[in-house]
Amino acid sequence: MSRADATRARILQAATAEFAAGGIAGARVDRIAAAAEVNKNLIYVYFHSKGGLFDAVFEAHVTRGLHQVPFTPDDLPGYAGRLFDYYREHPEVVRLATWHRLERGDSGDHDPAVAGDAREAKLDALAGTDGPFRPATLLTLVLAIAGAWTPTSISAIPHTPAAAQDAHECRDAVVEAVRRLIQQFPGP
Q: What is the mean pLDDT of each run of 10 residues along the chain (188 residues)?
């Protein structure tokens, strides 16, 4: 990794924490620069603006999420369970997606589970589903169930050792809820 790549990576890491905590409006470039141990001007050289930096952070997490939680239309309960796990392991992704929707006014086009072309691919994979829900509705329901206990939910599970059992029970409930949702009709 080149020195420039290492610097860029430190900026993105510091910016991830800052944006997850306060969104675009609440983030401070000075704090990001200090945490990344770089001159503030480098942030503007690499990313042009605070908004450009947010977009780079967001895109990096969307891409990572899409690769780490592959969509499995033939196993929607398993997909929902893996998405639940990913959100538990990476709460910053959920926070970034929430800030993106709130501050960018976006309808979720860059949400890790439903981003752009990835959303279309998911909908195409569900197009053969014979059931009471259109593919877009089915995908929305699966994603909502998987995210029911995310950090931005009023039902969020705290990250404490005592909450581990609750998290396991919630994961089981997510998988079972999606299984019941789709059991009434054949898969794609």
A: 90 95 94 95 94 93 84 94 92 88 66 63 84 89 89 67 74 94 68
Digit-coded pLDDT (tens) for 97-106: 888 888 887 5
How many domains does the structure of the chain reveal? Answer: 2
How far apart, in whole angstroms, are the C-alpha atoms of residue 84 and residue 108? 18
Residue 64 lies in a domain: no
Q: DSSP string of 142-173?
A: HHHHHTTTSTTSTTPPPSSGGGHHHHHHHHHH
| CATH number (domain holding residue 148) | 1.10.357.10
pTM of the model: 0.81
- What residues make up the domain containing 184? 69-188
Taking a C-beta distance cutoff of 8 angstroms, is the pair 42, 84 a contact? Answer: no
